[in-house]
Structure formats: C-alpha cells, structure tokens
Amino acid sequence: MADRARQTASPARFGFTDDRAAEQLRAVGWWDAAGPVAGTEPLLTALSRTPDPDLALRGLERLWETDPEAWPELDESLRGNARLRGQLLAVLGSSSALADFLVSEPGQWRRLTGPAPTPPTGYTTALLAAVRAESGTLTLEEAQHALRVGYRALLTEIAAADLGHLVEDGLAGLPYAEVTGRLTALAEAALAAGLAVAEREVGEPGDTTLAVIAMGKCGGWELNYVSDVDVIFVGEGDQRLATRLASTMLRVVGKSCFEVDAALRPEGKAGALVRTLDGHETYYKKWARTWEFQALLKARPVVGDVELGRRYTDLVAPMVWAAAERENFVADVQRMRRRVERHVPAEIVDRELKLGRGGLRDVEFAVQLLQLVHGRADPELRSPSTMDALDALGAGGYVGRADAAELEESYEFLRTVEHRLQLRRLRRTHLFPDDSETGELRRLARACGVRSVRGKPAGEVLLAEFRRHAQRIRKLHEKLFYRPLLESVAKVPTEALRLTTKQAASRLAALGYAAPDGALQHIGALTTGVSRRAAIQQALLPVLLDLLADTPDPDGGLLAYRRVSEALAETPWYLRVLRDTSAVVERLAVLLGTSRLVPDLLVRAPEVLQLLGDPEKLAHRSTDEVACSLRAAARRQPGLGAAVRTARSLRRHEMLRVACADLLGLLEVPDVCAALSSVWGAVLQSALAAALRKRVAEVGGEPARIAVIGMGRLGGAELSYTSDADVLFVCAPVGEATDAEAVRFASSVAETVRQALGAPSQDPALQVDADLRPEGRSGPLVRTLDSYRAYYTRWAEVWEAQALLRARFVAGDVELGERFGELIDPIRYPEGGLDAAQVREVRRIKARVDTERMPKGADRTTHTKLGRGGLAAVEWTAQLWQLRYAHEIPDLRTTSTPEALRALVRAGLAEAADVDSLIEAWMLATKARNAAMLVRGKAVDQLPSSGRELTTVASVLGYSVEDDPGEFVDYYRRTTRRAHAVVERLFYED
C-alpha cells in the first residue's frame, strides 16, 4: 500500500521522466510532500498531454524564475483559462525555441489569454507599428530587434492556435491550409516591415519603385514554420537605389525573422539583384531554362509597388503556360527531379521528408508538371498552391479522384510532421527520426496527435504511418510524374488544345482528317458540358487526335472513339484507364483507326480495353487456359440459354483480344488461327454440355454418348474470324439403348446446339455447319460409329476422304472421338494411296470448284480463298499429297496445312524452296483475309481494289499509311504467283 501511495504521488504518473520534476513542480507551487497541490490536477493532466511534459515543465519553471512577480497572475490564468492552459503548455512542450522567446520577453504569454489570436489581416499593421516608433528615433538595430520580437510573438500565436487542441479537448486545431496561410501572411508582413525599415535607412526613393515577388512556398501560400522565403525583385527608376533598398530589406529581414533567398532571379546569385521589367522579359525570352518557368508558376507579388508587381506577373504568366511546348520539356522536368533525388545522401534518403523518395518534392514536382502541361488550356489549374492545384486536377479529371485525395492526405501528413520537427528548435530540418531514436519518435508522435494503438507505442505507430504515406506518394508520383501521356500532350501545340476553335479545324485538316467539320462535331459531343467525363475527354482528345492522324482512317477512328465513349460512358474505369495508361490510348487509336470490327466488339466486351496496356496478357494467353475458363463459366450457368449467352460473351472477349493482338502485330498467323479455333471448340463443348443436361432432364436419362468432330478449318485449327464450324456428330448408345434411340436422342441434342449457337446476334456468326456429313444435307445429322463405318466402307468418294484429312475431335465424349479417329484413318490415309483415276478426280473437282465457286467479276489474282495461289490452291495441293502418301509417311498424318507441307520436304517429296513458297502464300492469304475482315467488319475473301480500305489492309500487313498500297498488292500477287507455279507442278504434274 505504501509503495502504491508513493507511486501515486510520483510525477511519473503525469508522464515526467526528469528526476527534477518534483522539485520543479514544488518551485511553481503545484506539488508538495504529499503530491499534487489541491486544484492542480487539471494543470498536471494538461502537462501530461503535451508532446514533451519535461520540456513544458522546464519552460514553466523558467517563466517563474524570470518573472516571479508575474507568476501569480500566470498561475491563476492557467487554472481558470482553458484556452491559455492548452495553448501555452502545448507551445512550451513542443518548442524550446518559442519557450526561449517567452522567457526572454516577459509578458508575451498574455497574448494567449484573449478570446482569439491576431487575425492574419492584422499582421502587417502589427509589424509596421513595431518598427515605426512614435518618436521615430529607432536605430537600425532597434528596428531589427523590434521586428524580431513582433515576428516571434505572432509566430507564437500561430503555433499556440495550431497545437492547443493536443492539450485541451475543448480547443479546435487549425486546418493545415490555415496554418500555412497564416505563416505566409506573417512572412509577407515581415517583408513589408523590412522594406519599410530599408526605405527609412536608404532615404527618399523619389521616382524609384520596387516590387517584391514571392516565389516557392511563399508564392503558393504554403510556408513552414521555418522556411527560406524565395523572392525576385523588380525595379523601375534608379536601379542602384532599388538595389540598395532590396539588399537592405534582405539584411533586415534575414537578421530579424528568416532568410530571404533571391537566388531564383535571372542568372541566379551571379545576376543582378534587381532588374527592370524589360530586363526580365529579355532574359526569360532568350536565356531562361525549363526549371525557371517551373519556379515562376508560384510567382506572386506581395510587397512594394502593387502595380509593378502585377505587370511582372502579367509578363511572365504567358511564358509559364507556354513552357510545356519547349523541346524536351517533360524530360527536362523529370531529369531535374532525379538529379535532386540523387543529391540526397543514401543513408538518409528514406528519412528525408522533403527531397527523398516519397517526399514532399515528389508531390510538388508531379503536380507542377501536370499543371504546366494541362494548364495551357485549362485556367482552373493555374494555382500556385499545391493543394488547390491537386483539387483542380482531381476535379478536372486529369488525376483520379482517389489518387488526388490520397496525395492530398499524404502531403498534408508529411507537411504536418515537418512543421512539428521544425517547431522544436525553429530550425530548418526535414529529417524524420531514425527508428532507433525512440524518445524523439515518441515526442514527435505526440506532437502530431498520434497515440499508441493496441499496446503499440505511439512512436512505432507514427513510423509505420510515415512509411505508408511515403510509399503511397512514391507510387502515385511514378504513376503521374512519369505518365508517358504527358509527353504526348506536351507536344500538342497550345492552340490545338482548344479543341473547337477555327484553328483546331485547320489543324485537323492538316493532320489528314478528310472531314474536319465532322471531326469537330464529334469532339464537341464528347467535350461539351462541365461533367468530369467531358473534362477528361478535353485532356485526352488532343493526344488522341494526333494518334488517330497516324492511322489509315482518322475520321473513322474518331467516329469509332465517339461510339465507344458514348457506349461506355457509365463504365467507371473507362476514361480513367485511358488517362492513366498512355499505352492503352496509343494502341486504342491504332485499333479504332484501322478496324470496324474492333469497336463493334469493344462496346460489348470493354474489359479487353484494360489488356491493351499489357502486351503479355493481351497476346500470350494459353489457349488451353482460355478454353478451360470458358467451359467452366458456361457450366456454372443454370440452363441452356444462360450457358450459351455466357459462352458467346467469352467468345466475344477472346475474339476481340485476339483481334487486338493481331492488329497490333503481337500474334503470328498460326497463333491467331489456333486461338480462334480453340475458343470455337470450347463454345461447342459448352453448348453441347448444356444441351445434354437439358435433354437428359427432359427424357429422364442419357441413352447416348456424343462426340463432335471438327472438320475443315476448325479441324485443322486454322479458323479465321468469320469461319463457320464445320462438324460431324457421332453417337454411341449407352446401356441397353438401341442405335435408333441413341441416334434420336443425339440428333435432338445436336439440333439444339445448332439452333442455340446459330441464333441471331450482333457478334460474328456462330454457324454450325454439318454439310460435310455422309450424304450431305439429305443425310442424317447424327450417325453411330457403325453407321459411319458402313457408309465410308461402301460409299465414300475421294472428296469425302479428302474432307476427313482435317477431321479432329473437338467436343463431347473423348473416348468416342478417339474411336472415330481410328475408324476414319483407313479412309483418309488409304492403303496404297490413290490410283490414277482418283488423282484425276481430285484434280477435276478442284478445277470445277475454281470455276463454279469463284464470284462473278472477282479478280483471281487477289481473291484470297479461290484465287491464283490462294488458300484453296495450297490446301488442295497438301491434301492431294496426303491422300497419296500418308499411309506410308506418318508425318503426313496431320490436320495442319503448313505441317503437312513441311512433312513433304522431310519425306523428300518436294523441294524446300517450293514448300516455302506455298507456306508463304498460305500465310499471306490467311493474314490478308483476316485483315480484310477486321478492316471492313464483315466477311470478305477479295482484297480491296483501291482506296482507303486497301491502304488499311496494307497497314495491317506492315506497310506504312504513307506507302503506296499498290506495293502491297504487287507483293501479294508476286507471292501467290510463285505459289501458283508450284501448285501447277505439285498438283497437276505426276
């Protein structure tokens, strides 16, 4: 009990760690042998809540020692005035420098007894009164001392209002912006008083006028408790007199209040301290570097001749907002930030609040770069305040709302920490304590209002918060500051950023838009109004217009962009992705200015847009993974309709993904064909599974297994964007079911699949074509294995054996599909090959196809499918040799056309040069056919004969839009002519 009583009576109970605490408390009359004196509990509790109770108590003791006669008044005021108690004790417990001031200037504490501090509008009056004694006999030293006292007194008021809420709950803390605003107003007042003293020292200025331009944090209303105040001087009249005024002011304010830095003037410290307006204009127009215009962003007249200061800012503002047009502007600003960062010693770079990674400069450089690039056309961004500019960037859509809010929060946190660090000794410091400095961390945490959390010390909590905010700032800095879109925007002339002017129409025509007036209508529709969407579009469109101008069809691309934007207007991430990821904008422009199919698909599969920023995800997704994902998603659906809709949706997604990668040159022809074939197979599998579930539920059992055999391009994994799915359906009875029952059940399922997939849709058709089945359209849709065996053994013609060369299991029962493959191998790889009559028959059928199926008026030299040296010619050649020799050469037993051709070389049946010609022509025709489909948005086998469509198809094949598209046509004809010569030898000659 005795120990508990002693512990209760110990000053440690109130957070004091100094061994002299009890003695100090007794000295001021708040402690006796038994412990706290009656009525002092609120005082001791208040002391315990200060950032450093020991420091606060030492300050009180010093006040008592310095002015013991005034102590009773102070003691009584502290007991009865909560505002004074909270503010004075908070100042004493936070700042040894301000405690020194209060001790050295007895009675200054009374400033904190009133109901409110001096308003910022009264700072200048107060300091001018301090340096202008009524007698007018103050010496320079006396004036400087008076200015110092007046400045420190007002600074104490600001700190007291800022910190008092830490000690007394009833007091409201000052918002960050108000603290920096008051500090800036105080600095301006000090400059005004310093200039007044300088004018008195220098003498009557006559016609000479001087304007003081605030720069940096003072210009942005963002000063710290301890900051250099950056200024530029502008003078008219006698320049020597103006220079004496400026230099005297610098000396007076520097000795009294803070350092005034004029190094941002033209030519820096080597240049004249004061220049005329003409001198500034000449320098900035001829010699100024990029960083100087960045600094001028915050230029603001504060003291001296108001009219001269206004003329100066009117002079430099147009240069500031044109700086982004300078060559390499964005790169220069980025390089400067990296140079500043490199100068920070490695051992403190992670603790440097101002210049380090994730520090204040990261925010300021990012904001200023965005301001200078986008502020050319948007006056709302032209604020010298970092926080105000961030608000405007967020409101205008140049930065995401969440990003802007997070940057503001983290910037304010770091600035608050910086203020508390500087207040301690009123020294300019930006170094966060090391994690080993637990005592300093604890004091700083308490000064920032951070308390312990769930047993975790306040210092550790603050350290974790500091690291979190620094990491967030760095991440957002790199996202915004190094956003490649900035360079693109910076390269757009300022006039072109004003999208609806006559100059913009002229520029659109110069860029190659065939209908500038129509383009302006699209631009107006996208940017009209004050919505956030319109603001983001205003920032995006100047860059997008330039990007579209480099595509084959700028007008069509802009129209497509409008359609996509209007369709996705309510998609929350759409414009954000375009704004934040320049690669997406650049690739989207290429796609929209090239393809009619892509925008049609994009409005219904917008999620693919996000893949444009990641070529790896866009182009290199595993076909097996895609198919598995599609089947799984469809399987989870409750019925046939839902399963088919899901399969359609995923097919649309994949088709768009593949089309984008194809147009951007990220996929080769075989990869495109394999991806399209794989997704078609997965769609068939999903529809078949859903139709089976539906039919089984209806009949109460599953009397048959079903397999779907891919034929033609599907079987060869060589599908194009518009290919039908050529298939055969095969079934096998289950259990005691008869063949007839199995066929009836399977036919119902197969027909359901065909109808469900073939239903009208905005997407490219999903046509399931079973016309290659035995007896064609007149034959049954589904047969059993035995039925197929009987037919092929007795009735199969050579063309049917040829069709079976590309037969491949794609969906349904795997074991049944494998058995079908074994069944048809003797048919498609006939023992002994073909006899002479069969070879002639194949040649006859091809000749008939070439004659009868070629569209009337088609150009045989540019028809990709049936033309000279086209797809059909190459495929029939490969298939003829497979029919003749696959029975003895296993390598020829493949459903792939290119692989079958390569096998001819390995087997010594054809020359490598001939096969290379065939494969080159086949690849070219396939790519050209796909390109024509993507460009026109509908199936087409004939290359365009001329015009923009031909130019666009040529661009997809790798030709520049500036090239003559006839070069592509010549190359196509030359390649297919060589292939035709090879076909003539390999197909028609024995």
Automatic annotation (TrEMBL):
GO molecular function: [glutamate-ammonia-ligase] adenylyltransferase activity; [glutamine synthetase]-adenylyl-L-tyrosine phosphorylase activity; ATP binding; ligase activity; magnesium ion binding
Domain PII-uridylyltransferase/Glutamine-synthetase adenylyltransferase: 334-481, 845-987
Class of the enzyme per the UniProt entry, highest EC level: transferase
EC number(s) on file: 2.7.7.89, 2.7.7.42
Domain Glutamate-ammonia ligase adenylyltransferase repeated: 87-311, 586-820
Cofactor(s) the record lists: Mg(2+)
Catalytic function, reaction form: [glutamine synthetase]-L-tyrosine + ATP = [glutamine synthetase]-O(4)-(5'-adenylyl)-L-tyrosine + diphosphate; [glutamine synthetase]-O(4)-(5'-adenylyl)-L-tyrosine + phosphate = [glutamine synthetase]-L-tyrosine + ADP
Residue span of region Adenylyl transferase: 493-990
Region of interest: Adenylyl removase: 1-485
Domain of life, per lineage: Bacteria
GO terms classed as biological process: regulation of glutamine family amino acid metabolic process
Pfam families, alphabetized: GlnD_UR_UTase (PF08335), GlnE (PF03710)
Keywords assigned by UniProt, alphabetized: ATP-binding, Ligase, Magnesium, Multifunctional enzyme, Nucleotide-binding, Nucleotidyltransferase, Transferase
GO cellular component: cytosol
InterPro entries per record: GlnE, GlnE_rpt_dom, NT_sf, PII_UdlTrfase/GS_AdlTrfase
Function description: Involved in the regulation of glutamine synthetase GlnA, a key enzyme in the process to assimilate ammonia. When cellular nitrogen levels are high, the C-terminal adenylyl transferase (AT) inactivates GlnA by covalent transfer of an adenylyl group from ATP to specific tyrosine residue of GlnA, thus reducing its activity. Conversely, when nitrogen levels are low, the N-terminal adenylyl removase (AR) activates GlnA by removing the adenylyl group by phosphorolysis, increasing its activity.
Family under the similarity heading: Belongs to the GlnE family.
Classification via HAMAP family: GlnE
Name listed for the protein in its UniProt record: Bifunctional glutamine synthetase adenylyltransferase/adenylyl-removing enzyme
Organism: Amycolatopsis cihanbeyliensis
Lineage of origin: Bacteria, Bacillati, Actinomycetota, Actinomycetes, Pseudonocardiales
